[in-house]
């Protein structure tokens, strides 16, 4: 099917232009100022026309979690992510037993390709190869050292589905494990870690180039011990995840990170848990009770337990509260996220890229969603 989106403000990588966006067979064909015969016309009604958002770190939403390991849960996450402007996401596991993680990965693998909402671009394994000292809301009883044997036991024959894995590189065996993940084309991220600056630099030399929820659950920056945060600041190779809700990271600190690394290396994530999209109350994460009040999700001891953030709200915060150009705010939620985990042909409104397209207003309220050229949320719905 040939389609043309007219009357939209088209968000490109470094500018916003007026024009009409051409779509042919699920791919973007180009931009024109004309209305061409033979194309189904979609009137954008002067909304912004943007690449769909990509969330590489999201555990749960609307009462469901990847670790539920059911088709119902994964389908609910696909549909709920769509409502926030996300057209592709990495279903994110957490530190649990090897068998529970294996079941979750198997369930995602079996469901992938049948999505009714946002596409599953792969899996992010957050744990179990992390440091108990910085475990955050990850259950410590399931934390184990990184080994290829345990990785293979969890992943089984779904290696190609694993796009991202979070580890603590200071743990014995981590450097060898990073090298092994490179052979499987898995992006390795540093997180839940007590690593020093020098240990991070060594890990980078082995292939590490991503940081999980930067600032959170890692050694902080100081003038005598620059820590993981200092290494993130000081390493061009590192893509830095950012939970931009004003709770996990102060907006001033977020602004410093973006100024230091640039929007080409900082990607917005939600790290959302099952309470996202729901009211305050009692929920769970990894079998642990989570208390949600005033948009804060915490364990009983006060530890932050993921977020209830929506990706369109994160983009709003970057645009309205940090004062970034809208195209830069969108970039951090689209092409930068895609590049950080080597996703191809998504994240930009450019010729031959996949037609994953959203429309929104000045408040980044999602009005329209198209996935692979198929309309999944109509204007006015």
Give structural notes.
This protein is of the alpha/beta class and 381 residues long. The chain folds into two domains: 2-50 and 348-377, Urease, subunit C, domain 1, CATH 2.30.40.10; 53-340, Metal-dependent hydrolases (TIM Barrel), CATH 3.20.20. It has helices spanning 71-83, 98-111, 148-155, 174-183, 197-206, 227-233, 251-261, 311-321, 326-332, 335-340; strands at 2-11, 16-24, 27-32, 40-43, 48-51, 53-58, 60-61, 64-65, 86-93, 119-126, 162-167, 187-190, 210-211, 239-243, 266-269, 281-285, 288-293, 296-298, 357-360, 366-371, 374-377. The strands form four sheets. Strands 1, 2, 3, 4, 5, 19, 20 and 21 form an eight-stranded mixed β-sheet that branches. Strands 6-9-10-11-12-13-14-15 form an eight-stranded parallel β-sheet. Strands 16-17-18 form a three-stranded antiparallel β-sheet, with no helix packed on it.
